[in-house]
Amino acid sequence: MADEEIETLDANPNNTEIPFNDVFANGNNESEIKKECSDESDTFECMQSGIVLPRKSSFMSKDGSRRGHSRKKTVSFSSMPTERKIATAQDCLSYMQQGSELVKVRSNSRQYHRIFSLNSDMTEVRWQPTSKKPHKARIPVVSIKEVRSGKTTDALKNKEIAGIFPDECAFSIVFGDNFESMDLIANTPDEAHIWVTGLTCLINTNTRTSTCNTTTPEALEEMQQMRD
């Protein structure tokens, strides 16, 4: 069967179906692909232009031995249009405005899946759905005292929680005059880091611009290097 596939490719060098991650029998098909995809970052663009990259397959030489790979082809997922790239504090805030599904942990260890988001003017953290009135299902940014990474509160240290969720996914928002705690679990450590970084940015910015009601772009620009 492998020999038949090789002969088909040789007979039709213009075939648009290019095997992914394999060596080509005639040595020409890969060169043609290189001309259209000059580097690895162009691989996804070639997929969009109509070149189909099938799933992994194997070719055997005519003597029955497996032929070695001359070059491994990869797809850079950073070029995917749906990928949300996070490089600066401003990127973190934009991500937060789009919303994240987080697990809200209560002091009795009950867990609630809620969509948390930062509002458009970056003055409030809101969540939904909720049985509370809309004006109560929010935390004003100016009321946030600090943001803690990890399981630092009694609710998150509870044995019913500690053994379920990774420490890196947990964080807490301490807010209000009574230092209340909103304990949250993100889906991934990266998502938790985005929220911690973004909220810390807003806290520091509000401290510097305490006389302003909104966060200025100039102040945000100063905080863009906060995230590693």
From TrEMBL:
Domain PH: 63-204
SUPFAM superfamilies per UniProt: PH domain-like (SSF50729)
Positions of the UniProt region annotated as Disordered: 58-80
InterPro entries to which the protein is assigned, alphabetical: PH-like_dom_sf, PH_domain, PI-PLC_fam
One MF term in the entry's GO annotations: phosphatidylinositol-4,5-bisphosphate phospholipase C activity
Example GO BP: gamma-aminobutyric acid signaling pathway
SMART domains: PH (SM00233)
Source taxon at top rank: Eukaryota
Name of the protein described by the UniProt record: PH domain-containing protein
